[in-house]
């Protein structure tokens, strides 16, 4: 099917529908036949893969000094961290961490932590 002529600004003329437009089927009486007939068959296309020639390839280069990250760690960041008790107290519910949530966590992740690690986690 030849393409319809375009207007000077590149748009399709108003009286010619877009090829992807879906039209209703004519009934058998209107078409004068026993089967249903479509007026225009819509065409669907997918975007083509990008050719290998247009592939974006990384380039080995050094990072400019303007974009270099400088870390200035002063002192020991672990010095202010609280010490963990290796023998925590038995679990007691606090805030949103209820006994129900503790049991659910233990049930859904068996074997992830040892028993001692699990007691310390519940103490936090």
TrEMBL record:
Protein name: Uncharacterized protein
Top-level taxonomy: Eukaryota, Fungi, Dikarya, Basidiomycota, Agaricomycotina
């Amino acid at each position: 099917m030849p393409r319809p002529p375009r207007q000077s600004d590149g748009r399709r003329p108003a009286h010619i529908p877009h090829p992807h437009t879906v039209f209703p089927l004519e009934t058998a009486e209107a078409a004068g036949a026993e089967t249903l007939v479509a007026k225009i068959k819509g065409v669907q296309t997918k975007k083509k893969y990008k050719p290998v020639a247009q592939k974006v390839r990384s380039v080995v280069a050094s990072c400019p000094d303007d974009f270099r990250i400088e870390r200035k760690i002063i002192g020991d960041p672990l010095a202010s961290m609280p010490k963990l008790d290796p023998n925590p107290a038995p679990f007691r519910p606090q805030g949103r961490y209820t006994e129900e949530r503790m049991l659910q966590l233990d049930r859904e992740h068996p074997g992830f932590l040892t028993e001692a690690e699990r007691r310390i986690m519940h103490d936090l």
